[in-house]
Design goal:
By secondary structure, the protein is mainly α. The chain has 2 domains: about 45 residues, no CATH class; about 50 residues. It has 5 helices and no strands. The radius of gyration is 24 Å and the shape is flat.
């Protein structure tokens, strides 16, 4: 968790310096809902998410740890259809199914398709015959 905190802090410092150099200015004070949205994203989108990712990197296979990158867009689309009233075509539903199926294959691949042992050929010396 400490590594994640250091990464976030360092990135914040670098971005603050870059914004000062670029001459960025706060032209209007955000509303309360804007501050709450940033706080929500900071807590759930950054602090908790990066620590969960670091935990996964240390404790599971890289394929499983990075599978979130494929699942997140699917979750976002489903939230858009469920909460935002968006509609999807048949092709888009099919694409979501393909993505989920691929993530399942990556996750369960070692059980569904176990690796076959590699046997090296035995080379005999002419003197041993």
């Amino acid at each position: 968790m400490m590594a994640g905190a250091i990464e976030m802090l360092a990135a914040g410092v670098v971005l603050m310096i870059a914004s000062m150099i670029a001459g960025e200015k706060l032209t209007a004070l955000p509303s309360l809902s804007g501050f709450l949205a940033v706080g929500y994203l900071a807590l759930f989108g950054s602090i908790i998410a990066i620590n969960a990712y670091m935990y996964l990197i240390r404790n599971v296979s890289p394929a499983l740890a990075t599978s979130y990158a494929y699942v997140n867009p699917v979750v976002a689309v489903l939230l858009g259809t469920g909460l935002g009233g968006e509609t999807l075509s048949k092709i888009e539903w099919l694409a979501l199914g393909v993505i989920v199926f691929a993530v399942v294959l990556v996750t369960l691949g070692k059980y569904l398709f176990p690796a076959k042992p590699v046997v090296a050929p035995v080379i005999q010396d002419a003197s041993s015959e």
